[in-house]
Amino acid sequence: MYCDHIFPHVGLPIPLEQQLLQRLPSSEGWYCEEIMRIGSFQVQYIGKSSAGDIHNTSKVMEGSNTFIDLLEIGQDKKQWAIGPVLRPTKKEKNGFPCLDWLDKQPPKSVLYVSYDMLTSFSDEQIKELAMGLELSKQKVIWLLYDPNNTDIYLGADLKRNFEFHAGFEERLDGVGLLVRDWAPQTEILAHSSIGGFLSGCDWTSCVETITMGVPIIAWATHSDHPKNGFLLTEILKIGLIIREWDQKREEVVTASTIDNVVRKLMASEEGDEVRKRAKEMGEAVRQSTEKG
């Protein structure tokens, strides 16, 4: 909907302030070959519904922007915003040690770090991320796996062995937790000890963190993620950004940059304000679903 600053179906300007439009992430470098293949498969079904379309969003998430209304005008069919569509959270722990660990942490004290299945960092970037998290001196739960080396269909144990700076895992013990397998993200974000989410900003994660009232640190790497992150950080103002999409995105993000942003969210007055807005938005989204 943000494409080229013009709403594609009706040729109308996007209802955003000009200053924000000028900072909107470009589309350059969004899509890798795998994303293009998936998109080519899906595009054959776009626009073929007769009754209308459903969207995993809500009027609360959309804010003052009227993208859903513009879609309805441009396509001349009904558009339903039925979000948030989430997997139901369960009260029982279901054998996940990470949830037991979170139970022992103070409220809003833990940063959750996780990426989607299509994101894979280089060894150098993983080391910088680990050093940045350690430098920040914040509690962290880090869901760390490599999507390119794990066959989720065959169940093959091909997980990548990450190499951290000397002593990192030993020093993490007690103040952080590495999770090297699937974990229940919705339950993690809903936990009272979570105070922030470092994410690649896939839309599912955005919907979950908005709904749970958790502020985000946006670190987009591909597809729609840069503009999802822009929505949360610049428009809704419920997060901070690691690095602008158009600024040296091929370079490794340094440990000092990661440290600074994590501290800003988790241990500063600015971070407290962001967290307050995220909490208020989460409450509003949840209330909107209760009303039906």
Question: Could you give the topology of this structure?
Answer:
Elements (H helix, E strand, L loop, with lengths): L5 E2 L4 E2 L4 H6 L9 H11 L8 E4 L3 H4 L4 H9 L2 E4 L15 H7 L6 E5 L8 H14 L2 E5 L24 H5 L3 E4 L5 H6 L3 E6 L3 H10 L3 E3 L6 H11 L3 E3 L13 H12 L2 H22 L2
Parallel strand pairs: 3-4, 5-6, 5-8, 6-7, 8-9, 9-10
Antiparallel strand pairs: 1-2
Helix pairs in contact: 6-11, 9-12, 11-12
Characterize this entry briefly:
The protein is of the alpha/beta class. The protein has helices at residues 18-23, 33-43, 59-62, 67-75, 97-103, 123-136, 168-172, 185-190, 203-212, 225-235, 255-266, 269-290; strands at residues 6-7, 12-13, 52-55, 78-81, 110-114, 139-143, 176-179, 194-199, 216-218, 239-241. The protein has 12 helices and 10 strands.
How would you characterize this protein structure?
The chain has 292 residues and is of the alpha/beta class. The chain has a domain at 97-290: 3-Layer(aba) Sandwich (Rossmann fold), CATH 3.40.50. Helices cover 40% and strands 13% of the residues. The chain contains 12 helices and 10 strands. It has helices at 18-23, 33-43, 59-62, 67-75, 97-103, 123-136, 168-172, 185-190, 203-212, 225-235, 255-266, 269-290; strands spanning 6-7, 12-13, 52-55, 78-81, 110-114, 139-143, 176-179, 194-199, 216-218, 239-241. It has a 6-stranded parallel beta sheet with strand order 7-6-5-8-9-10, sandwiched between helices. A two-stranded antiparallel ribbon has the order 1-2. Helix 6 packs across helix 11 (255-266), helix 9 crosses helix 12 and helix 11 packs across helix 12. It is globular, with a radius of gyration of 19 Å. Mean pLDDT is 80; it is low at 1-14 and 150-158.
